[in-house]
Design goal:
By secondary structure, this protein is mostly helical. It contains four helices and no strands. It comes from Bradyrhizobium canariense.
Length: 74
Protein backbone atom coordinates (compact mmCIF):
# COMPACT_ATOMS: atom_id res chain seq x y z
CA UNK A 1 0.00 0.00 0.00
CA UNK A 2 2.77 2.46 0.87
CA UNK A 3 4.41 1.78 -2.47
CA UNK A 4 1.12 2.60 -4.21
CA UNK A 5 1.01 5.95 -2.41
CA UNK A 6 4.56 6.60 -3.51
CA UNK A 7 3.73 5.70 -7.11
CA UNK A 8 0.80 8.11 -7.11
CA UNK A 9 3.01 10.83 -5.73
CA UNK A 10 5.51 10.21 -8.50
CA UNK A 11 2.86 10.51 -11.15
CA UNK A 12 1.39 13.61 -9.57
CA UNK A 13 4.70 15.37 -9.19
CA UNK A 14 5.57 14.83 -12.84
CA UNK A 15 2.16 15.13 -14.47
CA UNK A 16 2.56 18.75 -15.48
CA UNK A 17 5.94 18.41 -17.18
CA UNK A 18 6.19 14.69 -17.83
CA UNK A 19 7.25 15.15 -21.42
CA UNK A 20 9.97 17.64 -20.54
CA UNK A 21 11.48 15.99 -17.47
CA UNK A 22 12.14 12.55 -16.12
CA UNK A 23 10.27 11.35 -13.04
CA UNK A 24 11.40 11.94 -9.48
CA UNK A 25 14.21 9.84 -8.14
CA UNK A 26 13.53 7.35 -5.35
CA UNK A 27 15.08 9.87 -2.95
CA UNK A 28 12.68 12.60 -4.15
CA UNK A 29 9.77 10.20 -3.72
CA UNK A 30 10.72 9.53 -0.12
CA UNK A 31 11.15 13.25 0.50
CA UNK A 32 7.49 13.98 -0.35
CA UNK A 33 5.82 10.86 0.98
CA UNK A 34 4.87 12.28 4.37
CA UNK A 35 3.65 15.59 2.93
CA UNK A 36 1.50 13.84 0.33
CA UNK A 37 -0.13 11.72 3.02
CA UNK A 38 -0.60 14.70 5.33
CA UNK A 39 -2.01 17.26 2.91
CA UNK A 40 -3.32 15.35 -0.10
CA UNK A 41 -4.32 11.84 0.99
CA UNK A 42 -7.78 12.22 -0.52
CA UNK A 43 -6.16 12.49 -3.94
CA UNK A 44 -4.25 9.21 -3.83
CA UNK A 45 -4.87 7.43 -7.11
CA UNK A 46 -5.71 10.70 -8.90
CA UNK A 47 -2.42 12.08 -10.25
CA UNK A 48 -3.72 15.39 -11.68
CA UNK A 49 -5.54 16.19 -8.44
CA UNK A 50 -2.52 15.15 -6.34
CA UNK A 51 -0.26 17.41 -8.39
CA UNK A 52 -2.68 20.32 -7.97
CA UNK A 53 -2.99 19.63 -4.26
CA UNK A 54 0.76 19.61 -3.74
CA UNK A 55 1.07 22.89 -5.67
CA UNK A 56 -1.78 24.45 -3.66
CA UNK A 57 -0.15 23.39 -0.40
CA UNK A 58 3.37 24.26 -1.46
CA UNK A 59 3.79 26.81 1.35
CA UNK A 60 2.95 24.08 3.90
CA UNK A 61 5.26 21.42 2.46
CA UNK A 62 8.58 20.53 4.01
CA UNK A 63 11.50 22.34 2.42
CA UNK A 64 12.67 19.19 0.68
CA UNK A 65 9.30 18.32 -0.78
CA UNK A 66 8.70 21.91 -1.88
CA UNK A 67 11.97 21.75 -3.83
CA UNK A 68 10.91 18.45 -5.44
CA UNK A 69 7.52 19.86 -6.46
CA UNK A 70 9.14 22.98 -7.88
CA UNK A 71 11.74 20.99 -9.79
CA UNK A 72 8.93 19.06 -11.48
CA UNK A 73 6.93 22.08 -12.57
CA UNK A 74 4.90 22.80 -9.43
Amino acid sequence: MKISVLAVLLLAATAQNAAAQSGPTPQEQMTCRSDANKFCAEHIGKPPQMNACLRENKSKLSDGCRKVVESHGG
